[in-house]
Amino acid sequence: MTSEATSEEAAMNQAELDTTMCRDCWRRDNLTFAQRLDPAYIRREHRHLCDEHRAVRREIRAA
User: What angle do CA 31, 54, 46 make, to 5 degrees?
Assistant: First the structure.
């Protein structure tokens, strides 16, 4: 039964990798505060953003 559970977990993990996630949401959920300030983790691309974070970035650019 553990091999079945392991294969199910692997399939779920692969499905998570195949879906596109908002970069800002991923950063918030997976990086520490210090890492979020580190320039190595900052990306300026707007391709993979949810609607909420796109709106925030538009407001910042408009200001």
Answer: 70
Output the six-digit token pair for 48. 């993979």
Query: Position of tokens 């580190």?
Result: 38
Residue that the structure tokens 């796109």 belong to:
54
The answer to whether the beta carbons of residues 49 and 24 sit under 8 Å apart is yes
Asked if residues 50 and 22 have their Cβ atoms less than 8 Å apart, the reply is yes
User: Domain locations in the chain?
Assistant: 21-63
Show Cβ contacts of residue 63 under 8 Å, excluding neighbours closer than 6 positions.
none
The residue type of 32 is T
DSSP tag of 45: -
Span 10-29, pLDDT tens digits: 666 555 555 677 888 888 88
Q: What is the pLDDT of residue 38?
A: 87
Q: Is the pTM of the predicted complex or chain greater than 0.70?
A: no
